[in-house]
Write a structure and sequence with these properties.
Rossmann fold, disordered C terminus, 2 domains, 503 residues, alpha/beta, single chain, 17 helices
Length: 503
Amino acid sequence: MMQATLAMEGISKHFGGIQALNNVSLEIRSGEVLALCGENGAGKSTLVKILMGIHQPDTGRILSAGRQVSIRRPADGQELGIALVSQELSLAPDLSVADNIWLGSQRVPLFHRRAALRRKAAETMAMLGFSETIIDRPVASLSLAERQLVEIARNLCRDARVLILDEPTAMLSDGEIERTFAAIRRLRGQGTAIVYITHRLGEVFSICDRATVLRNGEVVGSAPTRELSRDSLVEMMIGRRLENVYPPSRNNFAEPLLSVTQLRIPGVVEDMGFTVRRGEIVGIAGQIGSGAADVIRALAGLTPAAYGTFEIDGKSVAPGSRSRMLASGIAFVSEDRAAEGLFLKRDVRENLIASRYGEFSRVGIVNWRRLTSGATHLAARVGIDVRRLMHKAENLSGGNQQKIAFGRCVSPQKPGLVLMNEPTRGVDVGARAEIYALMREFSAQGFGLLMHSTDLEEVLGMSDVVMTLYRGRHVASYRRSEVELHQVLADITHADSRAGTAK
């Protein structure tokens, strides 16, 4: 049994009438990667915020190396060596790596030698697999994975003994994920205690030694990952067995809905063509930087520099205008709900009809009764509890927020094309199954769906046709029944000799 670097005992927390945590006990051990699992709303974020000193528990205690401690503010957590690397990185892009590592640190004395700080920063980055020269580069010049590792180095330089990683791979390609995993393994070998939070269950078994599961604010199980299966972990998380995560295709594809020829995005995508039929889900597989996400955005009219020939229902549409694409029946579900997908401070009702105010107003005056009725209809179609129509969108789980984004795509006249970048990013396993079922329902109603995801299991599980991209070039297209994971992975990682062989 490894030593418990940090322990939480009997932690409970209420917010008004809502009990976020109930008698939670947790051990975080040195030299171990602990997966903290649970659906959205299970209590993971509250638990982390208590560890970081952002929230105070109602009852319970926290022990550091066996001694009871009080964490009243984030500085207290830092003094105890507790560090959080969140999904949203907090780096200054125009400053160097070395400056970012020490920015805001309480461990930098008033009179300090810059050379000594640079040396410590270089040693820490070397421990994570980098050469010394990286510390002088501006953060803006680094890849997402490199920035993630700079954030980790920043906390290690502050003597972090407990490192909490919140969805560290959400924005990374497969190669970058493996680089991050290599750094995590080094830290584990040096005795750092690591808490790993992710919705990608495959990563739990790839990198974590033990998993603790929260459900409805309570710990429902904790075990070494070697003693768990994917099914048993999911069952602990959602309280039931989850069958048929990926609904089967109905294979009732109709006429072409979207035809694209000679799509080009300067410096990103070269001469790409494809078709999406009604009732069909087409998935684009490609790592970050492949151009896959850019193809989706270009079709949504969000890339003015894009050009090519687009036909929607046989009618030519010029690219480069979001309003023109929307008028042609093309809906877009962004991977970034907070920045592009929702008005988080507005209620669910207004978010559902955000692109249709004209249908519920006359001479600029909104008919709120008709608007509420329309929003209620949309909510029912995508499985949102109509009792939550007046709740702010920011108070809903990631899965329900994604349902709102889908609800805006439901055309009252004629099914159109739905474009999706990372359709289940930040969504827990139970809500993912609901989103997948919703996608199949859309396709059965005659919608065409074009999606991109860096989760290859998701692409293969949901697509009727899989397209592979590598560095802006269309490598191949496959019927789902004709391709396996290893072939797709080969296409998107070693495609130089295969580019141009699309079939």
